[in-house]
Amino acid sequence: MALVVKISPNDKGNPPGKLADAELHFIDGELDGLKLIGFSIWERRGGGGRNVTFPARSYSVNGERRTAPGV
After folding, report:
1. Structural domain of 57
2. Which residues contact 25 (CB under 8 A, 6 or more apart)?
3. 17, 24, 48, 54: which has the fewest Cβ within 10 Å?
4. Read out DSSP for 16-36?
5. Distance between CA atoms of residues 5 and 57, nearest Å
6. pLDDT digits over 13-71, tens only?
7. How many domains would you assign to the chain?
8. With contact defined as beta carbons under 8 Å apart, do 25 and 2 qualify?
9. Geometric angle at alpha carbon 15, from 37 and 43, rounded to 5°
10. Long-range residue pairs from 50-59, CB within 8 A, at least 24 positions apart, any chain
């Protein structure tokens, strides 16, 4: 299995702290042609590093809002 990581810089600077969007493109094997999208790279609050957020789905149970990772 092989994949390519595609990073698109956030040239607009909006929202503040967002550095880039990222996608995983599978180019070989059983997952050939599949793309995982929705990853974002952020400057860590207070500096000193970066964070990556992953796709998630929001839903509610008994009126309580929850999220589940999409990966």
Report:
1. 3-69
2. 3, 4, 5, 6, 34, 35
3. 48
4. TTEEEEEEEEE-SGGGTT-EE
5. 22
6. 899 999 999 999 999 999 999 999 999 999 998 888 999 998 888 889 999 988 887 66
7. 1
8. no
9. 80
10. 50/19, 52/22
